[in-house]
Amino acid sequence: MSSFFATVFPDLQTAEEAQRLIETLNDKHAIKLVSAVVIAKDQSGNITQHNGRTPGTLGAVMTGLIGGIAGLVGGPAVAIFGAASGALSGGWFDLLRTQDREIFMNEVAAKVSTSQAALLGEVVNPSDDAKRLVEEQLVSLGGSVINSGS
Known about the structure:
single chain, alpha+beta, five-stranded antiparallel beta sheet, globular, DUF1269 domain-containing protein
């Protein structure tokens, strides 16, 4: 089973640094990263995606999640379109956890303020030690961790 995580940072550069750190943990096999992406909210309140790592269909979940988050700015119709188009482009057909993803997406979107950025990711079967390691590393960079459970 996989778990989502998100961490809000004061700026885009720090969130991108956090993404590099998470990818290094994956490369060292400390975690099994399915996907990671940085999103940022600009002065106009628009959310943009930066430096996504979404390998093949495994990253489809995050693609749909990002599409939905971006759509939150434009209202319900845009959110549905954004999530659907993002999901389809990534091949996401696992509808069983849609409600969990929507709850998580709304929680993340609500916590990203103007000029802030967030690192979102999905990790497969993280141990408690791996969760602590990731959280400690992200907090050490000045991040505010949003816990998602699974």
